[in-house]
């Protein structure tokens, strides 16, 4: 009945004085490379967990004999980057499909920003994510994960047009498997967030 | 692979673990860092024991969920119990004094520097 399997976990504990957890979310369609990106920059092996939401929208309720009908489960994985002894950045890889956004406020409110990963062979997979991020006022950038099979080799300018991305949204290429490339994605996002904050703070 | 089965297919089991409650502290974020303030004691619920052991060093709510193989909602309730019993403390993302006083741009600059130094 209890089918939980625990791998021996090679847990790397945080610094004892860690006090601030920060969030960045990587969203995108199925198989676009979210987990790969998280893994390439994370200091821990990506961990997987999930959130269950009942129809009522909070917690785990006794669901009067209809458990399957009234609960939604969304799985996501995450990695971790210790930015300093005190500050830890958590990087979440999350699906962009519809039901996921019901959990956005609950899970990812307070997120610094988001990375939208795009595969040019299935560009439309990210439309919904971009729309929702705009709706939630979450700053984001779009990173094109170039697969070898990316024979179309769309230039970024065409992708910007196809996604109807405004000029102020950063759009870059990446290879999710390469740590330096993943790091560059995060730095570009952080730089963008910093610019936005500066613009807000200096009227 | 990183994916591993998490047993949530059994609402009865979750109901048992949480005692049927669905209320969790509102301010318990996915990345609130939980720290044990005491050692587990005899007779405690096994999930509470595991959380206390895990949080000898700070661990985020989401890390606890992954380690215990339980949904985040359930872990929020369990951590809420331990908070109410003052057996753990929580360092909330926004409540950290060093952060609350800084303008947002300073925090982001810290993030940027941290990433560049990786
Ligand atoms: N060639 C190539 N393969 C990649 C790249 N990024 C990811 N992959 C592969 O693509 C497959 C899917 O990558 P994942 O990281 O699992 O994608 P995901 O978005 O997490 O997928 P789901 O969680 O299932 O939606 C894996 O086999 C990766 O090894 C890339 O840049 N180039
Ligand atoms: Mg994945």
Element pattern of chain B in H and E: HEHEHHEHH
**What is the 3D shape of chain B?**
elongated
Which structural class do the helices and strands of chain B define?
mainly alpha
In the sheet with the most strands of chain B, the strands line up as: 2-1-3
- Determine and state the CATH class of chain A: Alpha Beta
Pfam families (chain B): DUF742
Protein name (chain B): DUF742 domain-containing protein
Biased composition (Basic and acidic residues) (chain B): 1-13
InterPro entries (chain B): DUF742 (IPR007995)
Structural description of this entry:
The complex is a heterodimer of chains A (203) and B (118). Helices cover 28% and strands 27% of the residues of chain A. Chain A has a seven-stranded mixed beta sheet, with helices on both faces. In chain A, α1 crosses α6. The N terminus of chain B is likely disordered. The chains are: A alpha/beta (203), B mainly alpha (118). Chains A and B meet through β1, α1, β2, β3 and β4 of A and α1, β2, α3, α4 and α6 of B. The complex binds guanosine-5'-triphosphate and magnesium ion. The site of guanosine-5'-triphosphate (GTP) has 16 residues of chain A, from α1 and β4. Chain B: This is DUF742 domain-containing protein. Chain A: Keywords: GTP-binding, Hydrolase, Nucleotide-binding.
């Amino acid at each position: 009945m209890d089918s939980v399997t625990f791998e021996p976990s090679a847990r790397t504990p945080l610094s004892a004085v860690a006090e601030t957890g920060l969030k960045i979310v990587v969203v995108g369609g199925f198989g676009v490379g979210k987990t790969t990106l998280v893994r390439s920059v994370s200091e821990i092996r990506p961990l997987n967990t999930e959130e269950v939401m009942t129809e009522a929208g909070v917690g785990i309720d006794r669901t009067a004999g209809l458990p399957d009908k009234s609960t939604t489960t969304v799985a996501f994985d995450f990695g971790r980057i210790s930015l300093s002894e005190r500050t830890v950045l958590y990087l979440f890889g999350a699906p962009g499909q519809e039901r996921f956004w019901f959990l956005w406020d609950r899970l990812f409110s307070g997120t610094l920003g988001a990375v939208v990963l795009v595969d040019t062979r299935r560009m439309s997979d990210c439309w919904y994510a971009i729309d929702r991020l705009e709706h939630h006022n979450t700053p984001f950038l779009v990173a094109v994960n170039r697969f070898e099979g990316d024979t179309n080799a769309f230039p970024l300018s065409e992708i910007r047009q196809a996604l109807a991305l405004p000029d102020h949204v950063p759009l870059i290429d990446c290879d999710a498997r390469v740590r330096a490339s993943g790091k560059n994605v995060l730095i570009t996002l952080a730089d963008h967030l910093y610019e936005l904050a500066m613009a807000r703070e200096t009227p | 692979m990183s994916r591993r089965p998490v047993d949530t297919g059994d609402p009865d089991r979750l109901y048992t673990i949480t005692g049927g409650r669905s209320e969790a502290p509102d301010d318990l974020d996915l990345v609130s860092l939980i720290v044990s303030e005491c050692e587990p004691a005899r007779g405690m619920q096994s999930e509470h024991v595991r959380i206390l052991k895990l949080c000898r060093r700070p661990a985020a709510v989401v890390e606890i969920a992954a380690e215990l193989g339980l949904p985040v909602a359930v872990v929020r309730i369990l951590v809420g119990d331990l908070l109410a019993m003052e057996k753990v403390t929580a360092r909330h993302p926004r409540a950290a004094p060093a952060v609350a006083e800084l303008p947002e741009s300073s925090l982001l600059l810290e993030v940027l520097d941290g990433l560049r130094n990786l």
